Predict the 3D structure of the following.
Amino acid sequence: MMSTIRLTMAQALVAAMAAQKTVVGGRTLPLFAGVWAIFGHGNVAGLGEALYGARDILPTLRAHNEQAMAHAAIAFAKASRRRRMMAVTSSIGPGATNMVTAAAVAHVNRLPLLLLPGDVFAGRRPDPVLQQIEDFGDGTVSANDCFRPVSRYFDRITRPEQLIPAFERAMQVLTDPSDCGPVTLALCQDVQTEAYDYPESFFAERIWTPRRTRPDEQELAQAVALLKAAKRPLVVAGGGVLYSEAEGELARFCMAHGIPSAETQAGKSALPHDHPFNLGAIGVTGTGAANDAAKNADVVLAVGTRLQDFTTGSRALFADPDCRIVGLNTQAFDAGKHGAQPLVADAKAGLAELEAALAGWKAPAGWTAQAQTSRDAWLATAARYTAASNQALPSDAQVVGAVQRQSRVSDVVLCAAGGLPGELHKLWQPGAPGGYHMEYGYSCMGYEIAGGLGAKLADPAREVFVMVGDGSYLMMNSEIATSVMLGVKLTIVVLDNRGFGCINRLQNATGSASFNNLLRDTRHEALPEIDFAAHAGSMGAIARKVASLAELDTALDEARSHDRTSVIVIDTDPLISTDAGGHWWEVAVPEVSVRDEVKAARKRYDGALAARDN
Ligand SMILES: Cc1ncc(C[n+]2csc(CCOP(=O)(O)OP(=O)(O)O)c2C)c(N)n1
Ligand SMILES: [Mg+2]
C-alpha cells in the first residue's frame, strides 16, 4: 500500500517546497531560499500556520509591500543566475494584485518566481468575502485572474489533491531554462486548511540542475556556414549567457575566431570589461564602438537575447540590408526572431559546439582590428563623461564615475529605471560576472531598493550599490527599513534631479514642452523640497546628503566600512545625459500638432522610419 502523510494543502506545499534542492558550486542547497510573506485573512491561518511549522527549514521573511517582496525574489533569482529562487505569498485582493506588476517583471525577464496569493473560498459559502471581486456573469473569476497573462504557469487550487500535479508543473516551469518565468498558484483560503492523504513520494528530495540542450545538427551546420561566410561578424551577448554560465565559452569563442562582442543590458558583465574584443553596450544606450560594428556587421550571432528594441535600435541598428542573424537561444520563440537562422541550444553548449565546428576559421583580421581601435576610442570618450569636475550640479555620468572609481572587482551595481540605465549601460565597467544587475526588461521603477535586498541575499559576500533616481526612490523605498531589520546591507545612491529627468528629455526630443515630468513643470502650490536623507534616516539607514563629487567619494568609502545600509543623496543636473554613442529609438510622434517643435520632430521621425523601412 502506498504510504501517505495526512497534511493540509498548505502544509503539503511547504513540505514539498522544502524538499526541492539544487547544487551550486558543489554544495547541495535548498532551491527555495525562503518565502516572503505579508499575511491577511487569505493566507494567515492556512499557509501562515504551515510556514511557522517549517520556519527552520524554509525561512519566512516579512517586508512592507507585496510588489517589493516579489522584486526582491526576482533579484535574488537573477543574481543566483536562476539556480535558486524565492516564493512570495499574499492575502487575497489588494495584497495579491500588488504582485501583478512584479509578475510582469519576472515574465519579461524570464526569471523564476513562485507567487502564492491567497484566493477566495473554493466552497463559496461565505461569498462575497472581504476584498472579493464579484463578476456578474462568471462565478469562477477572482482578482487572481489578473496573473494569467503575466504567469508562465497559472493554477488555482480548489481541492487539496490538485496540489500534486500543479506543483509538479510549477517546478518544471520554474527550472526550465526555456520556459522559465513566474508561476502563480492561487491558493483558495478554505483549501489551504483542508487535509488530504498525500503520498510520501510527493515530499521526496529532488535535485534540480539546469538542462543543457545541445544544438540540432542541421541548425548547427547552417549556422556554421553563415558564420564561415561572414566578413564582418559580431556577437551580441544577452542575459542568457549569464544564466547559462557561458561567459568562459563566450570569451574563448571570441578569442578563437577574432569576433568582437557587444552586450545587452542583461548580458553586460558576461565578458570582462577589459576583454580585448568587448565593445561594450549595444543599441539605444550603446557605445560608439558596439554600434559602429553593428551598423556594418554582415552576420550577428545573437546569444541568449530577446532582441528587444533597445538592443536593435528599433530594428534599425543592423543597417546592412543583407545582414543575417544567427539566433542562439534555448527558447525557439527567441531563436527565430528577425528572420534569424535559429540555433536552439543552451548558450554554453551551443557556443562550445560552434567553436569546435568553426575550428581554424577566423574573421578577417582587418575587421577585428578595426573593432579594437574603435573600442579604445570609445573608452577615451567615456572617460571624459565620467571624469569629476567642480560644476554646481554633476551629471549622472559623473556620479557613475565616482561610484566606479571606488568600486572593487566583486561589487554589484544595481538599477532599473530612469536615466541611469542608459548611463550605466554605456559607462559602467563591471569587475566580475553578475557585477552589473540591471532590470531593463520591464524597467520597473521601484525595483531598485527591493531588488538590492534580493541581490545581497543571493551573495552576501558582494557589496551591492543601488543607484536610483528620486522618482524611483519615491515610488518604492519602504524596503530600506527591511534591509535594516534583516541586516542586509546595501549602499543606496540617490540621484536627485527633482523629477523624471529622462522622460522630460524624451518629451523634449519628441517636440513637446517640458510638462508634468520635472517637479517644477507640474501643477503645484509649492515645490516640494524632499529631504531624502532625513527620510531614509527615519527608516534606520545611515543617511547623508553630499554637496559635491568629492564628498561623494568620502561618503562611499565610509559606506563600505559600515555593516548597516547607507543612503547617500546627491543633487544632479536633470538636463544632461551622455550624448556620445547611442542610437535612434522608435517613439511615436504626433502626426498633427499646433507646435512647430512637434512638427519638426515628426519630420525627423518620418525620416528615420523611411531610412529603416525602405
Ligand atoms: C512603474 C513605472 N512607471 C513609469 C515608468 C516610466 N518611467 C521610466 S523612467 C521614469 C522617470 C524616473 O525618474 P527618476 O527615478 O527620478 O530617474 P530620472 O529619469 O530622473 O533619471 C518614468 C516615469 C516606469 N519605467 N516604471
Ligand atoms: Mg529624477
The first helix runs from residue 9 to 18. The longest strand covers residues 113-119. The chain has 24 helices and 23 strands.
